[in-house]
Design the sequence.
């Protein structure tokens, strides 16, 4: 079994191999039971001192009796024990194992007689064979009569003969030499083979005492646990080497995310300060590496893989954006494996932990590839072997991916590296450059340091994000100086400058090439496009964009990718999303198209561009209103838009126009308000420092007409009223609370609306006592408020009013 070779040819089982074995079993033939790769079973009974006899009480007779009882148990069995189903001479065997000292009549004559008797039409036996078979037949008949009341059929002996093999075995002579030879292919030297055989003997002795068993995986694990070094299983060695080679190629590809090059040929790398924490967390179990786009996740993951390899660990490194697969079978094909990825990882065993490192889970962008890598992760985790999984993913995609959050369920291992919103996910957040990392980088890249010497603080903050650092380094290589960069304040502006220098200067052909590539990627839900698509009509444009570093080719130029996923997002925003159509309501993201995960990040660039157009953000609130009021819109796009609405406002002026539109009964504005408040509630949990002023001002400004948003306003007030301490802002909340109560009192069927509004008015009572009291007193007017609120609630509100 360990050598993964077929059974001894004396059993005549063809190419079948042992799959598992058990010792001292419940079967009548109980010494050893072996399951075969052909679905058969080999039951072994060992007799070191047996000789031919017609006595049922003799060692030979007892063994024949066990064979008969085994045959009957299988004939009458239901398969519940796997072996207890009718025996099949094509795949099953009953084996009598004897030592080298057994008489020749038993070792040689009886096996020949059984073989001749079981062949089609029977065979001619010589005198010695006839005597041997007669002894066997006599024992079979006696055993049958003893085991069952059914009449004995003389054909029974012939039927059993087809199943029985007598095998002589010499554990210290030639057979031992043959076993050592068969094990030579599993170890690096013949001396190691002898040690393996000794280990096997000791292990089998223990399993026999324990009535235990093993399959190949468990056998290898137990032997390696004894300090015995084994080569990978022969059938999987080629696949394991392919995974090693592929991992090496992946690591070389990902190295670009660790390098800053502000001067041609001067490649600078900085060891991230978080690297030790990442390695320690990875050693502790399955782990997600998260962070915003461009934070340096790929570089950190690649450095982790390199550190683990240098420490002698087995590492498989995959980059999701290199594959366009829809099934695990497709992934097997892409990797050039004979066996499946999961089967190969199971076969790649050892006593030390190993790591499967997967970069950029977000690169699937909601396509079928997501299911492939999710299934890979799930099955490797479920297997429970030595393979630990470390995967990187953008915060945006983890927020959208409930299943990934479930797979990596656990407690974040490092207190200072937690991404808000994921307290129950075992993850680490990769930060931007620390100050010491950034200082080290600038000291080693003087050209970049000179370009950033006198730039505004906003640009210097941008430069502290690794992706932005690389963009700036590229621009410095293009000859840009501080004056060219001084107007840059946002990542969008930095990308636009990069776009102008690396794409637009190649005019329409370059833009057309990028449009073809982006369109192909969006349609395929993958961050790579076939070379044949990219090169259509103008190969020189593709060559230009590769020279500029905007695009890269992979897999011997069969596929084209953007150098970074952020470049894809920005390119998609530039060539596929028209801000004017978004504002006019002509650009839709239909639910059926399912493009949210693919285009959601690109939409962020467009919405930021629209936000910056006007001080009152009028066009922005029009655009998001169009998106959020589309009830058939993509839920990912709507969710992302809601979060943007909650994130961008920092002043009352940012949101004033939205309030005016709500008061004017604008349906799009109402939807923008509803989704914004839901996203705000989540944001406040993750980022409690979020400015309250815009939302307090919005609540105050929509007080003249709360009809279309009463439920959402109530939700907003309950969420923020306890957090606002500023006196003026609390006055604004009081105005909104009283407007909500007044509206609720006018409803024909207010249900809980009145009681909820009363609580809010009570909470803000001191902001305008007279107005609050006057409004609360209306509850006790002739209007049957008790009928509207219910008697218990009504009495409670009376007590509240009295206390006020």
Sequence:
């Amino acid at each position: 079994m360990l050598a993964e070779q077929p059974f001894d040819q004396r059993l005549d089982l063809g190419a079948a191999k042992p799959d598992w074995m058990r010792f001292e079993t419940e079967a009548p033939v109980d010494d050893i039971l072996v399951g075969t790769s052909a679905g058969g079973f080999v039951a072994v009974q060992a007799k070191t001192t047996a000789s031919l006899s017609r006595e049922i009480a003799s060692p030979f007779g007892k063994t024949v009796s066990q064979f008969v009882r085994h045959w009957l148990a299988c004939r009458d069995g239901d398969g519940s024990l796997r072996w207890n189903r009718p025996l099949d001479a094509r795949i099953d065997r009953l084996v009598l194992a004897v030592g080298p000292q057994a008489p020749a009549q038993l070792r040689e004559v009886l096996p020949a007689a059984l073989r001749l008797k079981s062949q089609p039409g029977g065979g001619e036996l010589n005198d010695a064979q006839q005597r041997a078979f007669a002894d066997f037949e006599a024992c079979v008949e006696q055993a049958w009569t003893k085991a069952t009341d059914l009449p004995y059929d003389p054909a029974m002996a012939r039927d059993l003969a087809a199943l029985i093999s007598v095998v002589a075995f010499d554990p210290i002579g030639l057979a031992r030499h043959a076993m050592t030879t068969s094990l030579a292919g599993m170890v690096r030297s013949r001396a190691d083979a002898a040690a393996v055989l000794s280990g096997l003997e000791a292990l089998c002795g223990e399993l026999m005492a324990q009535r235990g068993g093993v399959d190949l995986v468990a056998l290898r694990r137990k032997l390696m646990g004894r300090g015995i070094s084994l080569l990978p299983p022969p059938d999987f060695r080629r696949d394991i080497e392919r995974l090693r080679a592929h991992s090496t190629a992946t690591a070389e590809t990902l190295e670009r995310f660790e390098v800053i090059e502000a001067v041609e040929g001067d490649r600078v790398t900085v060891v991230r300060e978080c690297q030790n924490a990442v390695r320690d967390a990875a050693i502790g179990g399955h782990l997600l590496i998260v962070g915003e786009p461009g934070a340096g996740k790929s570089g950190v993951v690649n450095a982790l893989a390199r550190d683990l390899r240098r420490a002698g660990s087995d590492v498989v490194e995959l980059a999701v954006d290199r594959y366009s697969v829809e099934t695990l079978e497709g992934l097997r094909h892409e990797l050039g494996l004979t066996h499946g990825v999961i089967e190969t990882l199971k076969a790649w065993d050892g006593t030390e932990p190993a790591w499967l490192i997967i970069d950029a889970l977000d690169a699937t962008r909601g396509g079928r590839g997501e299911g492939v890598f999710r299934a890979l992760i799930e099955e490797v985790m479920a297997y429970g072997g030595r393979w630990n999984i470390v995967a990187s993913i953008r915060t945006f995609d983890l927020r959208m991916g409930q299943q990934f959050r479930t797979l990596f369920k656990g407690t974040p291992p490092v207190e200072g590296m937690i991404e808000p919103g994921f307290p129950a996910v075992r993850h680490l957040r990769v930060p931007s450059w620390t100050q010491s990392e950034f200082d080290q980088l600038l000291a080693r890249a003087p050209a970049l340091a000179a370009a950033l010497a006198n730039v505004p603080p906003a640009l210097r903050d941008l430069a502290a994000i690794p992706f932005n650092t690389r963009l700036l380094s590229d621009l410095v290589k293009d000859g840009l100086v501080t004056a060219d960069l001084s107007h840059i304040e946002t990542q969008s502006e930095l990308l636009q400058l990069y776009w102008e220098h690396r794409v637009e200067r190649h005019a329409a052909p370059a833009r057309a090439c990028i449009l073809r590539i982006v369109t192909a990627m969006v349609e395929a839900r993958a961050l790579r496009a076939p070379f044949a698509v990219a090169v259509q009509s103008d190969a020189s444009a593709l060559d230009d964009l590769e020279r500029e570093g905007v695009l890269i080719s992979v897999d011997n130029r069969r596929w084209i990718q953007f150098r970074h996923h952020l470049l894809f997002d920005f390119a998609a925003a530039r060539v596929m999303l028209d801000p004017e159509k978004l504002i006019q309501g002509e650009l839709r993201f239909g639910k059926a198209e399912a493009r949210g995960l693919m285009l959601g990040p690109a939409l962020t660039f467009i919405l930021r561009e629209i936000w910056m157009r006007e001080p009152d953000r009028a066009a922005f609130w029009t655009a998001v209103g169009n998106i959020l009021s589309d009830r058939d819109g993509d839920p990912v796009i709507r969710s992302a838009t809601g979060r943007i609405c909650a994130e961008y406002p920092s002043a009352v002026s940012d949101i004033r126009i939205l309030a005016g539109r709500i008061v004017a009964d604008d349906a799009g504005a109402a939807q923008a308000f509803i989704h914004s408040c839901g996203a705000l509630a989540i944001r406040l949990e993750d980022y409690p420092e979020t400015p309250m002023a815009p939302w307090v001002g919005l609540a105050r400004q929509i007080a003249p007409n709360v009809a279309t948003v009463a439920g959402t306003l109530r939700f907003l007030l309950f969420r923020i009223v306890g957090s606002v301490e500023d006196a003026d802002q609390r006055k604004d909340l009081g105005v909104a609370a009283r407007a909500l109560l007044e509206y609720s009192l006018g409803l024909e069927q207010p249900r809980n609306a009145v009681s909820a509004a009363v609580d809010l008015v009570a909470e803000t009572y001191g902001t305008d006592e007279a107005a609050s009291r006057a409004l609360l007193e209306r509850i006790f007017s002739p209007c049957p408020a008790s009928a509207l609120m219910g008697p218990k609630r009504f009495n409670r509100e009376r007590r509240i009013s009295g206390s006020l």
The two ends are 85 Å apart (CA to CA).
